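Worked Example 4.2. Consider the chain below.
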Amino acid sequence: MSQTPIRSEPRLVKWAIVTLAALFVALFIVLPLINVFAQALSKGWEAYSAALIEPDALAAIELTLMVTALSVTANTVMGLVMAWAITKFSFPGKSFLITLIDLPFSVSPVVAGLVFVLLFGAQGYFGPWLSDHGWRIIFAWPGITLATIFVTFPFVARELIPLMQEQGTTEEEAAVTLGAGGWRVFSRVTLPNIKWALLYGVLLCNARAMGEFGAVSVVSGHVRGETNTIPLQVEILYNEYQFQASFAVASLLALLAIVTLLAKVALEARLGARSGRH
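Applying the procedure from the previous section yields the following structure tokens:
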């Protein structure tokens, strides 16, 4: 006996909705992305490559890669720690801790940058002490790294927590019963079960870290060749009417977006296949 669909839309309505969605994606996502590469290559490959190897651009790329590496490493470690604590233990303030993880999502990046200025700036709470000891946080790479860590913190933890809650603690408890120590339980039981979700969180964290603008703009000082990341370098070039050069540098972030999207699709397929087996 055949089952009648609970809801069946007319063919015209279905294709109208699909067409509207496709047009929206093409207009607001695909066309701007194409325009970035068209403007970047508007003066040919020589001008494009020259914009990328310009000293300030190379310095921005180097700083972005360094800050991203530090931020992703810190957030990967702390994301694992937070997810482990929340999903494997019960303790007072657990709900509050979960709420704090989402704080960077609800706070403007500009506000986050201002907070770091108030804490570590020359007139901030710790500024004079840091200055007396020869440490420079604001308008230097440590401040940029701190701001980037803050805005990208939730990505790894938020990918791991739901999965680890779903998996429960049965396998870890069994391993402990068999005599396995804490590190062995983590490396042999927990990590293999969460590795794809961990990679997914690291991927999203990496993409956000490389493209962060608001918080970094506040704490960087916009010092050419020293504290400008790729997004800040794009802004400076554009404000100076060097449009082709600004789009050339911006194309690096566009390429990152494309690579991130492809990796995201691959990881989602892998996660979907793993969920199907379970």
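The longest helix spans residues 243-277. The mean pLDDT is 88. Compare this with Example 4.1 before moving on.
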